[in-house]
């Protein structure tokens, strides 16, 4: 059985980039006016919109999650990674700053060949030393290991660099490969890479397709890097603007003030797609899933029969069609895995899927000692079954799903479901402390089955009695051992053996109920450029906050 993801080890084919832009639609920025391509020909800028409100503090540090570069996501166009891991489509890997990347059998060593003839945006040569330095900052303690890479050092042999790690990175390949590579000649003089905002003159130096041109609290402008190793870029400027909320963002997209965003837009057909035939919306399924977590430690979910009955009652397609307005894919497999991970569904479960089957659900309950009185479900202790399901107020898609589940379970099984919509703080405290009854939550996405199962069955996420995942607090030593084996195995065969233990337990115990793939979303238009990712060609997601934005911009061509 082939386990995802497949890692490309050969050199990536040369990139063929369009070198000219349309000449009749100059792009304008709220502050800068018309833009030019690297070759001097006029072309349309692209404006990326965020719905996060004003971003008032300038910081271009790619390692800081709260820097303006990370919040806007323009760091992805300045600082490049060794390779790009596709979170959708084939889940494959494309070498980027490295000409090739290759893992050893147990994923504790990564051998890379640096791309030749690459220059930093200040004209200095990019070398193997820059790669080693970017990781060695973790080793020498200058840079916090926020990605838990557990990097132990590097060796250089000719044109090959081997990066070594203390434990297997099979389930964390993207975290390693997406580590931003920075110029040694700049960063070796930075006293504290964990705090430096990189706002000094000449500090924002990268190998990426764009360079920083202007920063203000209203917008950020990047211009095409004229010496980019990938060739000329058809989009001459990138603008980043953060709007107050999704409503303002939608207005900007519809009016053409903004071109590109990632957001869940309610009634997107009427609000965005119908406004212009060029407007596009791409839903890119990932290995993660929106999931109903149940508190396994208390009634009513400490009874497996009830969990199993719910799995045969909740309508995943309604979640996709109504709550997500089509922006998802239903997860029906009893293994909890969606279509992207179908290769990791063991043969014995390949054809086993849930459906909405109330007769089956009621038989499971009856066999377990449940009864009905006045059309209400009564548990074996003689108590009416009821529970609350909690999602923060304002999460419109999941708020809708709360109402759907409440209706489905009341009508189908006679269960009273109370809809709870607290603020974020109350919800966060309850999920960590285990004081909830049921919540809807996302999963850790590792690009393989491990993400689903560690998120839902692994005690490692519970520290000092507070949970970061596995909110139901499932605990089975055999499953824990199998999860550790899967993560650290040196072969697909070992992972498959571990998966047999994990998957069997998941199917038998129903610790959670996945609803639908948790996708990456992208709204964009084809007025000026074509070549965007699509359902037919999912080489990347359409989400401009992902590393592959650089890849997308090298593939765009002028619209005819």
Detailed description of the structure:
- This is ABC transporter substrate-binding protein.
- Belongs to the bacterial solute-binding protein 5 family.
- There is one protein chain.
- This protein has 560 residues and is α+β, with helices and mostly antiparallel strands.
- The protein folds into three domains: 121 residues, Periplasmic binding protein-like II (D-Maltodextrin-Binding Protein, domain 2, 3-Layer(aba) Sandwich); 112 residues, Dipeptide-binding Protein, domain 1, CATH 3.90.76.10; 234 residues, Roll (Dipeptide-binding Protein, domain 3).
- The protein is 26% helix and 20% strand.
- The chain is built from 16 helices and 26 strands.
- It has a five-stranded mixed β-sheet, with helices on one face. Strands 19-18-20-15-23 form a five-stranded mixed β-sheet. A four-stranded antiparallel β-sheet has the order 6-7-9-8, covered by helices on one side.
- Helix 8 runs antiparallel to helix 10 and helix 13 runs antiparallel to helix 14.
- The two termini are 44 Å apart.
- The N terminus is likely disordered.
């Amino acid at each position: 059985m082939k386990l995802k993801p497949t890692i490309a080890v050969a050199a990536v084919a040369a990139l063929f980039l369009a070198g000219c832009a349309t000449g009749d639609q100059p792009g304008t920025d709220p502050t800068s006016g018309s833009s030019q391509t690297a070759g001097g020909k006029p072309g349309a800028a692209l404006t990326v919109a965020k719905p996060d409100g004003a971003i008032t503090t300038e910081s271009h540090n790619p390692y800081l999650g709260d820097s303006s570069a990370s919040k806007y996501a323009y760091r992805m166009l300045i600082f490049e990674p060794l390779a790009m891991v596709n979170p959708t489509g084939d889940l494959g890997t494309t070498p980027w700053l490295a000409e090739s990347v290759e893992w050893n059998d147990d994923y504790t060593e990564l051998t890379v060949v640096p791309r030749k003839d690459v220059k930093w945006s200040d004209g200095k040569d990019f070398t193997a030393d820059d790669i080693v330095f970017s990781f060695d900052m973790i080793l020498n303690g200058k840079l916090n290991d926020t990605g838990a890479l557990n990097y132990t050092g590097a060796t250089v042999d000719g044109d090959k660099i081997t990066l070594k790690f203390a434990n297997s990175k099979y389930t964390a390949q993207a975290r390693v490969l997406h580590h931003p590579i920075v110029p040694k000649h700049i960063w070796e003089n930075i006293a504290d890479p964990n705090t430096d905002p990189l706002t000094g003159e000449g500090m924002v130096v990268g190998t990426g397709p764009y360079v920083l041109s202007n920063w203000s609290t209203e917008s950020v402008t990047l211009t095409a890097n004229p010496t980019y190793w990938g060739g000329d870029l058809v989009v001459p400027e990138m603008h980043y603007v953060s709007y107050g909320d999704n409503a303002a963002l939608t207005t900007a997209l519809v009016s053409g003030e903004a071109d590109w965003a990632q957001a869940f837009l309610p009634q997107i057909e009427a609000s965005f797609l119908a406004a212009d035939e060029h407007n596009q919306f791409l839903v890119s399924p990932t290995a993660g899933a929106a999931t109903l977590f149940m508190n396994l430690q208390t009634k009513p979910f400490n009874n497996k029969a009830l969990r199993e009955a719910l799995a045969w009652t909740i309508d995943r397609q309604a979640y996709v069609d109504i709550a997500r307005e089509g922006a998802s894919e239903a997860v029906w497999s009893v293994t909890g895995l969606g279509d992207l991970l179908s290769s990791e569904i063991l043969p014995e479960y390949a054809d086993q899927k849930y459906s909405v089957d109330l007769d089956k659900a009621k038989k499971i309950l009856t066999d377990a000692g449940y009864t009905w009185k006045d059309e209400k479900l009564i548990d074996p202790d003689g108590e009416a079954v009821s529970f609350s399901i909690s999602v923060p107020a304002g999460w419109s898609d999941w708020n809708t799903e709360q109402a759907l589940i409440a209706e489905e379970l009341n009508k189908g099984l006679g269960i009273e479901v109370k809809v709870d919509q607290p603020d974020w703080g109350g919800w966060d405290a309850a999920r960590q402390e285990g004081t909830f009854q049921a919540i809807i939550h996302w999963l850790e996405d590792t690009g393989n089955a491990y993400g689903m199962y560690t998120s839902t069955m692994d005690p490692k996420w519970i520290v000092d009695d507070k949970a970061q995942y596995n909110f139901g607090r499932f605990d089975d030593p055999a499953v824990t051992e199998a999860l550790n084996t899967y993560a650290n195995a040196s072969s697909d065969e070992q992972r498959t053996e571990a998966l047999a233990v994990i998957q069997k337990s998941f199917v038998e115990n129903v610790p959670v109920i996945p609803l639908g793939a948790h996708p990456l979303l992208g709204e964009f238009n084809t007025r000026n450029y074509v070549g965007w990712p699509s359902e037919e060609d999912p080489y990347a997601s359409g989400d401009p906050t992902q590393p592959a934005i650089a890849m997308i911009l090298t593939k765009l061509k002028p619209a005819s």
